[in-house]
Amino acid sequence: MNTLGLNLPKFPGNLPWYMFDIYNLQLITSITIPLGEINDTKEIFLSETPIPGKNFAPISPGGNGNRKISFTLPVIMRNNSVGNMLLLKQFDLLRNQAQGFLGIRKAGQFNPNPKVLYSWGTGSVPLIYYVAKCEMKHTSNMVNQLGNPQHSLIDIELVLDETNLLYKAEEMFRNLAAVAGMALNLTNVVNNHISGRAPF
């Protein structure tokens, strides 16, 4: 059924998993995708204030936390020479001070850690994130003849930079998409109710 006249095009393939290291000018991509779930969290702070004699504790909004994206990416490269070492070094740049493309800028005391452009699997426009975690686990029984790993798991946690101008685009997209989502979901509910079809 073509709901609301949305004629979505069919694509010949999927956009591969990707992340762009802004400060080091590195496009990080992989033939694999994150394992299991991509966690997308944003804490909401509420303060409950107990008052003697009341049957409830009044709630005061205390603001919100940062949006955090976390996932585990398998990095696999089975060969007898470098293994997946070259791919791992791209991730290694994310947990060291930014040095620019080919390391032409020497890391110093106040050099920032890299930020990345990311959107895959989040339902958002591409946004700028701080890299809060980049940990590697290497599978010990998948090491090649030269001792290089061939299978590794990369644990990533990203924290959204809401001060970046791209976040304004996300705010506009969020509001417009929410209205479109309301209309789309309402139409689907009415059509399913009229036709008597199961929702799934």
Q: What is the topology?
A:
Elements: E1 17-21, E2 26-30, E3 35-48, E4 59-76, H1 85-93, E5 115-118, E6 127-138, E7 151-160, H2 166-195
Question: Would you kindly provide a written description of the structure presented here, covering whatever features stand out?
Answer:
- The protein is α+β, with helices and mostly antiparallel strands and 200 residues long.
- It folds into two domains: 13-162, Elongation Factor Tu (Ef-tu), domain 3 (Beta Barrel); 165-200.
- It is 20% helix and 34% strand.
- It is built from two helices and seven strands; from the N terminus they run ββββαβββα.
- The chain has helices at residues 85-93, 166-195; strands at 17-21, 26-30, 35-48, 59-76, 115-118, 127-138, 151-160.
- A seven-stranded antiparallel sheet has the order 2-1-5-6-7-4-3.
- A hairpin with an 8-residue loop joins strand 5 (115-118) and strand 6.
- The protein is extended and about 65 Å long.
